[in-house]
Structure formats: structure tokens, C-alpha cells
Amino acid sequence: MTETETLAYDVVVLGAGPVGENVADRTRAAGLSTAIVESELVGGECSYWACMPSKALLRPVIARADARRLPGLSQAVQGPLDTAAVLARRDEYTSHWHDDGQVAWVEGIGAALYRGHGRLAGPRTVKVTGPDGERRTLTARHAVAVCTGTRASLPELPGLDGVGPWTSREATSAEEVPRRLIVVGGGVVATEMATVYQALGSQVTLLVRGKGLLPRMEPFAGELVAEALTAAGAELRTGTPVESVTRENGTVVAVTGTGERIEADEILFATGRAPRTGDIGLETVGLEPGSWLSVDDTLRVEGTDWLYACGDVNHRALLTHQGKYQARIAGDVIGARAAGTAPAAP
């Protein structure tokens, strides 16, 4: 492992998803030198495994459903979707999981991109281990912004490790459609992917621990989605917790709370999100690894004067557009504080 010199910037951003990109855009606009550290693809979860591919998959399903309700057109759209074409269009929207365009954008705003795993190493310091093992130390004169987002949270179930379960990532990037799919969960990811795969030819069984779908929304929304899924041929079972899973001769077997065995070719767990803060060095600055980061209204982490957390990682609103909004606020605040023009706190 090779150590290199320490490099100083005004701002260091951990995570080059939409949130990190927006922080960097605003700090560069304020004239601050900015480094962005990314361990995967520039553009983040939204561009490659969430917003973009999920909506690309949903669009043909929704368009066909709308057309089937339109007199004069409904009879022409009764056939199945062209699965290969749907997946190919999805691939185009994810740029085939290449981030060249996003990298060019980062370079265009004048930010420095470091590929690798970034970890805090004390106040205003980030150590980056690159794919080749080379290590760099980045220091921040003004701020470090944590924009690492969230990951899928899997339940602790007997047998799960040996099953190879899908999460939202596998569901939005799959190259083939399973004949049978179990979806565990009743939230947005679960209902979107159940809708997509039922329309693409899977026999979907949706297992929901609670009483209905979309529990964080108005009841009528979940009821309408449940009706649509049932009408499409999906099997919806509420009040049905999964107690264990196994894979027997290639077949997934989920055992419910009543002991019933449900078989499928794949199983998707859409059971929540967890912060991607477990291995970013929070312990070196007195914070708990794996925790959500509490922030004030300027997105500065409570108890610090240099650390910011934007987007999903602060648990205020786990939505891309809200994270981008927060990022613009944080970037402007960092710029104002660096220039000494930030208004005094009330």
C-alpha cells in the first residue's frame, strides 16, 4: 500500500451522488477548492440503482395501463410487454452503468475527483484508499460534507445469508425476469418493483408484515395500489411476516409466521434503509459508526463547527430531491461562513 502526500482543499465531500454533486457545485460557485471522494459510480444510487432505473422500468407499465383505459386504443395494447426492450431502455437510462458523463460534469465545475474509499481520520481530515491500494490524505480548511446516503437494510432472518436475496439494487439492474418473485415489504420500493415484475411476466407474491401498503401515506393511496396489483395478478398477503428463508435446489422457500412455505425463483427484500456511515471513520471524531447524523438547520452536524451531513444520511427526508435541496443550502452556508458573510445565529 503506497502512501502519498497530503493534499489540502477548502472543502472535502464524501460521496458523489446527486447530493454530493450539489454540495460541490455550490462550494465551487463560492470560489472554494473542492474534492469529491466516491467509492462506486459518480452519480450515486439514484442514477444507477434507484430513481432512474426504477422509473424507466415503470414507464412502459404505466403507459400500457393508461392506454388500456382509453377507448379506441385499449384493444391494441392487450398483449404483453417486450421484456427485452424494456430492460434495454432501462440500461440506456443508467448509461449502462458507466459514469463518464457524470465524471465530465465534476471536472467541468473544477472539482477534484478521488476514486476510492474515504474515511474520516480526525477533524477536517479524510484518508482515501484507491482501487489500486494507493492512499491519499485530504485535509479541509473549512468543511467536510458527508453525503454517503443509505443502503438497503436486510432483516436478521435464519437462512438469509445462503439465499442470495435481492435488494433494490438487484431488482433495478436484473438482466432477466424470474418466473416467480417474492417481494417482502409494503413500502414504495416493494410496490414499485412488484408492479414492474408482475407486468414483465413474473408471478409476484407480496408479503407484508403490516395491515396494508404504503403505511406512511394516506390510506387511500395504499388501497389503490393494492387494488391495481391484485387486478394485475399479483398475490398480496398482509399481516404475513417472514420467519425464515432457504434456497432448496435453486428454489427460494420463505416460511411465514404461520409456518406456510411459499416458493419462488428469487426473493426481494424491500424492508427499509440504513445509513452508509458504518465505515467512514465517525469514531475518529467522536461519533457512532453506522449512525444517522443529526444536523442543525444549516446541515451542520450537531456538536461540530466543520462537519456537514446532507441527504439521506441525516434521516430528515430520504428523497433525492430533498437531499439536493439540502445540499444547495449546505454549499451556500459553507461558502458564506468561509467568506465571513454568514448571518449570526438567532
Mass-distribution shape = elongated
Portion of residues in helices?
25-40%
Structural class: alpha/beta
Number of domains: 2
What is the residue-averaged pLDDT?
96
| Corresponding CATH superfamily of the largest domain | FAD/NAD(P)-binding domain
* The CATH top-level class label of the largest domain: Alpha Beta
pLDDT under 50 segments (min length 5)? none
Beta-strand share of residues:
15-25%
Number of helices: 9
Reading the helices and strands in chain order gives: EHEHHHHEEEEEHEHEHEEEEEEEH
* Number of beta-strand segments: 16
Distance between the termini: 48 Å
Major sheet characteristics:
7 strands, mixed
Task: Tell me which CATH architecture of the largest domain applies here.
Answer: 3-Layer(bba) Sandwich
Report the CATH topology name of the largest domain: FAD/NAD(P)-binding domain
User: Radius of gyration, Cα only, in angstroms?
Assistant: 22 Å
List keywords for this structure.
FAD/NAD(P)-binding domain, 16 strands, alpha/beta, elongated, 346 residues, 9 helices, 7-stranded mixed β-sheet, 4-stranded parallel β-sheet, 2 domains
Structure commentary:
- This protein has 346 residues and is of the alpha/beta class.
- The protein folds into 2 domains: 3-43 and 99-151 and 274-339, FAD/NAD(P)-binding domain; 154-272, FAD/NAD(P)-binding domain.
- Helices cover 31% and strands 25% of the residues.
- The chain is built from 9 helices and 16 strands.
- Strands 1, 2, 3, 4, 5, 6 and 16 form a 7-stranded mixed sheet that branches. Strands 10-9-8-14 form a 4-stranded parallel sheet. Strands 11-12-13 form a 3-stranded antiparallel sheet, with no helix packed on it.
- Strand 11 and strand 12 form a beta hairpin.
- Helix 1 (18-29) runs parallel beside helix 9 and helix 3 (51-68) packs across helix 4 (83-93).
- The longest helix is centred in the last third of the chain and has 20 residues, at 320-339.
- The mean pLDDT is 96.
